[in-house]
Amino acid sequence: MSQSTDLGTAFENALSTAADLDKQGIFPQGDNSLFPDRRPTNVEIVEASARFYHEHQAVLDRAVDDARNFLDSPDGIAYVKALEGSFDSAEPNPLSAEIAAQILHRGEFDLGMSQPQGLRGFGIGVSVGASAVVGVLAGADLVFDFEDRAEVIPRTWLGVSVKGGLSVSAGLEMSFWFDKPLTGAIAGWLLDIYIPNPRFKLTFFLRFMYITQRPEGATGFEFAGVSVQLPFGIGFPYRPDKGKDLLIALFGAHQEAASRTRGAVLDVVNKATNLATIAVAETATLQVTLNNTGGDIQLSSGATMTIGMPSYFTNDDVTAMTITYAGWKSSTTTGPAGGLSLLLTLTQDYTWEAGADIVFAIGDVRSSNQPPYGQQSRPGQIVLTVKDDTSLTNPIVSNSDFALVWANSEATVSWSTQINTTQFTLAGDSSGTVDAYAQPGYQVVVLTAAKDNKDGTVWELGYQFNYNTAVPDTVLPQIRAVWQKKGSPKTPNTYWQGTTIDPASPAGTSSTANYGGSASTGSSITIKATFG
Fold this sequence. Notes:
single chain, eight-stranded antiparallel barrel, about 15% helix, globular, five-stranded antiparallel sheet, 6 helices
């Protein structure tokens, strides 16, 4: 059972502690080039951290909850230890990508590859830190780039923290990137926050790392992202000075980050809907497409493709699935934890040409489970690994989102725009009609765009079609118009939505999203939906 992560309360408590420290004249210390002109207050630092949290609250809450459940599982820590060992090599290690993808699959970190709005990438890795007066910090992770799915960015960092936030920690690290991580100096602060954990009747220790980076050759630091570090083993705050409740550590470090190709990009969709979802009690055929993003690959007879299905498919569910693909023999294989995966074995030598797709169907796909009540879906990851002991030096690993939803829901959406041409130039159609399927989560389907005539800012106009789970034991599809700033997190200044429409709404009901949240601006998008 998932435990609710109350990071909001933890940040409120941290802000209260920060205010008390400021009143006592206890400020974060250290000669950190991030603050060349003055020393920041504790409150300013906590507020900056909390601001990022509130802009991405749904993502961070779910991430921490998923990570805690994963680390509580029998093999969770073993996977993290294996990932830690894979970073021992000085060169980028493809094994790290394979293990990181397996952790995403095993832990069901649905947010990891779901491209949260306003974020450039998601990383998963390990970190270690120990501090008394001056602390040593180090970490390594794999950052999955949302803008270029063919790329993965191995990242390592090593540095020191100065006076504050004293603790000993080692464990899983998740990073959330607003900008692409680059080689060069990084700096920022560590904020230790404490969350009660009813399951263990103790306080859960979490380290929030606010990261700015200065690329090689640049002079100033720019905000790049945050990481959330969840310790295991030794995972408690160490306070040598009992008279001071120190909260924050400033840090400086050097970061190495270099993009490299993943070798292939995986996409899996339900043939009936062309979406990466399957409904409860639905028997579906999945379309699997694996695109070679590198050069020609020579595969020899006996090479394998292993397809790991999300955990909401039982072993019996996987056994019932069928694959017929010319040149490959289908079977199943058992993983270390006893879970079944689909296995394709090549029966003759094959040249997988650069840019070419491997395309096949998985039939008789049905899940014996359902999403938790109160949630729109049960997210998951399908992970495909290509191995060839004689021709491939390293395995090729790729993954794709695939979620279990309560039901498929279709609607015909007609839409139109009203644009104040003195302020905006429409960059697309002004109206139209589309067929739509409900999707879990809060992703916006973009229909058209408007460009600000003054500063060139691009605004996206579209709809959000998901599920209302507020009514107990009921899941209703709902749709609303949306006007949002491209590539920005949802805030009162970047995102506006209209009222929701559902199957119970009167015929002809419309939803209008106005720029600025007000009809007086003269710019809007209006949608109408016919369900079924």
